[in-house]
Amino acid sequence: MIKGNQLYEGKAKIVYETDNPNELLVYFKDDATAGNGAKHGTIQGKGVINNKISTFFFKQLKDHGVKSHFIETVSPCEMLVKKLDMIKLEIIVRNVVAGSLVKRLGLPEGTPLAVPVIEYDYKSDELGDPMLNRWHIMALNLATIDEMNQIEHMSLAANAIMREILKAKNVDLVDFKLEFGRFDGEILLADEISPDNCRFWDTETHEKLDKDRFRQDLGGVEEAYQEILNRLTL
Ligand code: ADP
Ligand code: TMP
Q1: Which residues line ligand 2 at a C-beta cut-off of 6 Å?
Q2: What is the pLDDT of residues 142-153, one digit of tens each?
Q3: Quick check: CB of 90 below 6 Å from ligand 1?
């Protein structure tokens, strides 16, 4: 595999072309942002850790029947993936009330939800990623009903699989964000699965082991990312 031109630089990753038109190289950065880019910072070692945690989850999900863009890890900060026609949605799955749901539902942080809740945000920095429902998604031609059904099925499957794996490591999966894309007529899970886009709480203490430590200036950010990697892989 030969690394080609930079295709895109985002807030957390840089995407490069490769000599294969169907494959991309994703470089995980240490940069961190919050509040749709309002807060900027660096989390030392995050790129390496998020590459490892994402690799771990993509492999586990594949073993349990959830297909993703992941091909292989090629360096500490880089992952080779299938180049997808990305669906401009962020799919959020929630098991416990936290983050933006606290205000929206008026419930205390930590309230368990009776069933997992799926939400959609329109991936648009200019609009501030507004929440959409299935009607908006169809009206904007972002995805078909059939694709939405597949995305929901895969998201709930990923939730069940990840919850089970994390439970054994004394970690509660509070909520997370996924992205999907199309490849050869198939819907595949894309992007990353890491403490940047998941809320992980210690089961006993409810200590936050994710990006909320950065968002809320709680300190111990690097340690929390490392702790999740250790619990999953050691
Ligand atoms: P953002 O664009 O939100 O700042 P990142 O810094 O994580 O996010 O940039 C990674 C970009 O790559 C995102 O826009 C994401 O949608 C896109 N992406 C992730 N996986 C793939 C893939 N397999 N094929 C094409 N694009 C992808
Ligand atoms: P929220 O409570 O702020 O809406 O976030 C829900 C989950 O989705 C949380 O795990 C963080 C993740 N998320 C992202 O990864 N990117 C985003 O842009 C947003 C809004 C949330």
Answers
A1: 90, 92, 98-101, 121, 129, 175-177, 197-199
A2: 999 999 999 999
A3: no
